[in-house]
Amino acid sequence: MMNIKIDSISEAHRLLGLDKPKHPLITVYYHTPDVIDRTTNASFTGNLYYIAMKKGIRGAFQYGRNTYDFEEGAMLFLAPHQVYTTPEEVETDAESQGWSILFHPDLIRKSTLGKSINEYTFFNYEVNEALHLSDRELKSINELVLKIEEEINQNIDKHSQEIININLESLLKYSQRFYERQFYTRSSSNKDFIIRFENYLKGYFSSNQLIEQGLPSVKQCGYALNMSGHYLSDLLKAETGKSAKEYIHLLFVEKAKFLLSNTAHSVSEIAYNLGFDYPQNFSKLFKSKTGLTPTEYRRLN
Length: 301
Known about the structure:
Helix 4 runs antiparallel to helix 5, helix 6 packs parallel to helix 10 (244-262) and helix 11 crosses helix 12. 31% of the residues are buried. The protein is elongated and about 75 Å long. The chain has 301 residues and is α+β, with helices and mostly antiparallel strands. The chain has helices spanning 9-16, 33-38, 112-116, 135-153, 160-185, 187-205, 209-213, 218-224, 229-240, 244-262, 267-273, 279-290, 294-300, and strands at residues 2-6, 26-30, 42-46, 49-63, 66-70, 74-78, 84-85, 91-103. Strands 1, 2, 3, 4, 5, 6, 7 and 8 form an eight-stranded mixed β-sheet that branches.
């Protein structure tokens, strides 16, 4: 399998067998059979953002620890330096379609999108957490892609980059909206994940892991549930209004309150039992969540 690093739009065009790019920092290309053939059995990474809509393509694409088949159609988003692996063979049907957008961070660096790009957490989702679009939603997305493509193909002037960024930001905002719709329509299955997450945290907080490793990270919790930490946090936010980090801290506070109210251990001992090497860090987190120091809480209870 080839390991390919792509750091520029020109490099991407050479790899895909496309003509010289019209814009140095962004490109839109379509998933023709020739393009698909050139990208099979390879692992890609590099300093580019990648947005793709894939449909009618069968094959075990891999991103992170998970694989996904795009026969039904879906969008995926990758940030720079993430690894995306394609299958050894790809089958396409008569209705296969799709497009990809590649853009360099320099395109958005001085724009409002450059300041907010990290807020679009789906760039850090796993590939099996792809966005599934209705026909109506896909139409809205495709219209924005066409606007971006039209602007790229025009002669570049002082307005080009701003207009491209506006449409690119609109595409991401729509994608964010559609992801929220996806969370809502999958509410029943999402509740199963929430129960599993809560059970994982309860098991973690009652084991030696808390002392040995400290508070679990969101990424660690996601890994335990076979999903990305970002997806887990966004799923929880949509369902409960609380992020994964807030959930972790909520259970931590309940555990701390129990120990403060029902044991004679000192605050330092409790801090150690909760995985803190320094009691002041425990006290700071406890006060930020309750408004009281551990000692003040103990006096009141």
